[in-house]
Amino acid sequence: MGTAEMARRAGSRFHDVMGRRAEEREADRLARPEDLERILEGPLLPEPVSETELEFARSTGLIRRANAAREGEFVLYGRSVKLKLPIEWLVDPLSGASAEELKRLPVWSELYRKKGIDFRSIWELNRLQFLVDWARAYRLTGQEGYAYLVNRHIESWQSANPYGRTVNWSSALEAGLRSLSIIISLSCIRDTEGVWDENFAQRMTRLLYLHGKFISNHLSCPSSGFNHLAGEAAALSVLGICLPEIPEAEDWREKGKWMLEESIFRLIRIDGGAFEGSLHYLAFVCRLAVLAGVIYDRLGEHLLSQHACERMARAYRFLCAVTDGGRSVSEFGDSDNASFPAPAPAGARERHLSTLNLLWLFCEDQALLHDFRLDEESLWLFGEKALTQEAGSFEKVQQPLVERFDKSGRYVIRSQAGTTQVFLRFECGHWGDGSTWAHAHADRLSFSLFINGNPFFIDPGTGAYLTDSRMRDYFRSTAAHNTVTVDGRSQNEPLACFLWRSPVLSSLTACEQNEREVVLEGYHTGYSDYRRGPDRLIHRRKLILRHRENRLEITDYFETGSSHRVSLNFILHPDCSLRQQQSSGRLEITNGPVTLSLQPDSSCRTSLYRGKSDPPLGWFSPGFLRWEPCWQVVLDSSINGDCSLRTVIEWKVVEQEEID
After folding, report:
1. What is residue 195's DSSP assignment?
2. Which residues lie across from 511 on neighbouring strands?
3. Which of 3, 188, 291, 487 maximizes the CB count within 10 A of its CB?
4. pLDDT band at 12, cuts 50/70/90?
5. What CATH number is attached to the domain comprising 595?
6. How much is the average pLDDT of 373-385?
7. What dihedral do alpha carbons 559, 560, 561, 564 form, nearest 10°?
8. Looking at the 3D structure of the chain, how many domains does it have?
9. Is residue 111's pLDDT more than 60?
10. Is 439 found in the same domain as 306?
């Protein structure tokens, strides 16, 4: 590092420190206890009132989670993690490594990883979502001990995280999510003596003011912020409307509303699909927009325009289609299990079903496209309206055989022959956001297949971001998806944790259907970008679903002028068992009452992997920072010039009488 760069960084740090001090002095001068009144004068979100509502709220896992957190057992990434009390806010809750001595370093410093610290896990704890559980438990039970825990832990967090001086002040999104947790929690415990204490109210107003200042001054770059910027906008708009007497409130409110509106049109494509190439982050943005929108409605204002609400309705239709109404969830792209405002459910299916509920309830006059089952968050955000739907006053609309989402690069087939239901999703077309492609996976021409809701060929998930670069690269590689690798290469080359070398260009070339079959065909150019002349290769894939015959034919075409080794990958859900017939090479795959056979092309050599570590093969990630072994079928073949390989998949459902 040269002298000029050292001087520039030192100067930037000096101005940052001076700016923080000025903002703290400003907070001391402007923040007043009475500014908290709008948050404390009434519920910002619906609360269970009727006996039916209270009965359902008590039947969920809320009270159990609240009591477990009181004993140090918190829900992070959808799983329970035991922590030492009192909470150490700068310790990685999973590894136990302390970031105290690194708190002044930027989060991208390699020193975090060398110490075994994943600051994303620190952030997860510091989003303070467990405060929402305690606050809601107070509303259900009236036990002031829960409210006391909320007050004590906010003060503890504030003491351990001086403004702008720890890793928890390094992301405007994290500040935004944390501020929402604090606001929702304070509103729930509004009738307790502690929150009306002048000293406590003064500290809370000051804390929320500093959160608003930090978010406003550290907004993510519009060219790459994407879901971060949407979350920051939602939080800033809520801070603005909830603290109306603060001088900057009007600016926060208008800026947040405008940015959230822009984010919705940017991140939700015209067909409702995910601009970032991630099912999870599309759903996450929708949840935050719904939460902010409900708060605005409760306070007598509208957050989003009619056009933005229509785009949200399109997202609902897209999410219903690509998850089979929440029944067959195989996430594409990155997922870090984030949910809001309560801690995330354990499974992706529960998380997406909740999101579908919230979107449908929020988008009025929207046809019901999924099986609505009342969940905890639907009740706490929509109250009586959610109960009305649970009573069955709306009828679900029948879905078409084929749904196309050309702008988003996703195609869905739902078919039924007798009692056999087939759900197939094909990934072809638009790949990612267009700058870094940060959350996209190299999965063009991959597919997912469910039979009667039983998962067979699936997307394996995300695994990790920062803690394990090897598993990070595996889970987003072509080898970890139900598509083809060439010469051991992925369709694209990762340059960093959230950066790819170039886009993968892909397009659908055929979509045909009749009463007997559905045909989808597409191609991608991922293997032509790094080769020139005869070595370049175009991969085309045709899927023919003969739904009356319970048969899927996959033909992979390779256009090239040279020799290559190609590998067809099939990732099986961990619930699947696998057996190979030595004589024919046919594979028998069973999950529940469904048995599926896979017949490779005669030119292919079959290899089976399960939990292989070097290189990684045969892994499934049920949630962020978790992975477990699963079967991975690899069909290898050597090709020379243009050729094709054909794989045939058939299935049979064993009826209950046959089992008995």
Report:
1. G
2. 520
3. 188
4. very low
5. 2.70.98.70
6. 95
7. -130
8. 3
9. yes
10. no
Query: How far apart, in whole angstroms, are the C-alpha atoms of residue 280 and residue 127?
Result: 18
Q: What share of the chain is helix, strand, coil (3-state, %, to 5)?
A: 40, 25, 40
> In this predicted structure, what is the pLDDT of residue 18?
65
239 domain residue, yes or no: yes
Q: Considering Cα of 317, then 320, then 323, then 329, what sign does the dihedral take?
A: positive
| Tokens read off for 110 | 């390699």
Radius of gyration for the chain, computed over Cα atoms and rounded to the nearest angstrom: 26
Whether residues 648 and 594 share a domain: the answer is: yes
Mean pLDDT, to the nearest integer, of 466-479?
95
Q: Is pLDDT at 660 greater than 80 in this prediction? A: no
pLDDT of residue 532: 54
Q: What is the CB neighbour count within 10 angstroms for residue 421?
A: 19
Q: Is residue 395 part of a domain?
A: no
| pTM of the shown model | 0.95
Q: Which two tokens stand for residue 589?
A: 């795959």
Question: What does the DSSP 8-state code read for residue 530?
Answer: S
Q: Find the CATH number of the domain harbouring 68.
A: 1.50.10.100
CA dist., res. 505 & res. 528, Å (int): 10
What is the CB neighbour count within 10 angstroms for residue 403? 18
Residues 96 and 228 in one domain: yes
Angle (CA) 614-618-622 rounded to 5° is 120
Residues 6+ apart with CB under 8 A from 311: 264, 265, 268, 272
Contacts of 132 (CB under 8 A, 6+ apart): 181, 184, 185, 188, 341, 342
Residues 6 or more apart whose Cβ sits within 8 Å of residue 139 = 47, 48, 188, 189
Same domain, 504 and 359: no
At residue 465, φ and ψ (nearest 5 deg) are -110, -65
* Same structural domain, 224 and 179: yes
Lowest model confidence (mean pLDDT) among 222-226, 330-334, 651-655: 222-226
Residue keyed to tokens 């610290």:
117
